[in-house]
């Protein structure tokens, strides 16, 4: 096996803990009656998918969601809905990422949207007052790549930009379909459970 040089982490479920049912309730509170059918654990539907794959920007999404709800929603309303997914932001995992960066390049590869990333990349993200960017070398998002996992496009977008070699890279994701494509592309893979403390498992691969 080649020497490990890079580690790529999924965001939701791996770095932060999340709960789909909680997100459904958060969107229902702002008036999205069909939230249960539109929100998935790993993949979204309708306009929720459009904003994650970059086909719709944040403002257009807000306007379209307002039409669905039959009332004008603010940016904060929509952000609060998306943040409903988040149950915990474990500081110990973020601190561990910075420890890993002493030896490896550390990346995020996430199916996400401008609302979640706007929060994650702000000082409001952690109790330490630091954004996600302070803990990783680079963040790759589905809406910027124009592709969502498990499509290979988002992986190839990251590979081309970072110039990483999958054979020298561990890919950590809690989604089974994402792990399958990761293996097909040559990554060393690890699939923790949502919210799991995966540090010891990862150490065994390093």
Automatic annotation (TrEMBL):
One Pfam short name: Hydrolase
Domain of life of the organism encoding this protein: Bacteria
PANTHER family named in the record: ALPHA-D-GLUCOSE 1-PHOSPHATE PHOSPHATASE, FLAVIN MONONUCLEOTIDE HYDROLASE 1, CHLOROPLATIC
Protein name, per record: HAD family phosphatase
Organism (species): Phocaeicola dorei
